[in-house]
């Protein structure tokens, strides 16, 4: 009987302990930013494949994407991604998106 009560108590404690972890995970989640990063990587790869992006342009865009990833990692480091940090990441993604478009549509092509 006591064993069943102990097991029941441990299960209840374990479930209660998981609630803060779930909340913590939501505070650092950045699914929209990750989704945009994936989409922009596809756009860069398409530009390379079609010859619209030169090696130098591609390297520049990849550096921008790496900076966004580093900033995202830094924002998550303290356990909370604030609204200001999210706004900064979105602004960086917007600038990079415009750069991708401009570099793909300039007159420089891979010969």
UniProtKB/TrEMBL annotation:
Residues 85-111 are annotated as: Disordered. Keywords: Signal. It comes from the Bacteria. Transmembrane segments: none annotated. InterPro entries: TerB-like. Coiled coil: none annotated. Residues 85-96 have a biased composition (Basic and acidic residues). The keyword Metal-binding does not apply. The keyword Ribonucleoprotein does not apply. Residues 1-25 form the signal peptide. This is DUF4148 domain-containing protein. It comes from Undibacterium baiyunense.
């Amino acid at each position: 009987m006591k064993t069943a009560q102990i097991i029941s108590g441990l299960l209840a404690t374990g479930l209660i302990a998981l609630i803060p972890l779930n909340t913590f995970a939501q505070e650092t989640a950045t699914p929209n930013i990750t989704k945009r990063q994936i989409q922009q990587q596809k756009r860069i790869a398409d530009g390379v494949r079609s010859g619209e992006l030169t090696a130098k342009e591609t390297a520049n865009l990849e550096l921008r994407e790496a900076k966004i990833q580093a900033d995202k990692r830094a924002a998550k480091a303290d356990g909370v991604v604030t609204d200001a940090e999210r706004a900064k990441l979105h602004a960086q993604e917007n600038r990079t998106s415009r750069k991708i478009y401009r570099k793909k549509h300039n007159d420089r092509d891979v010969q």
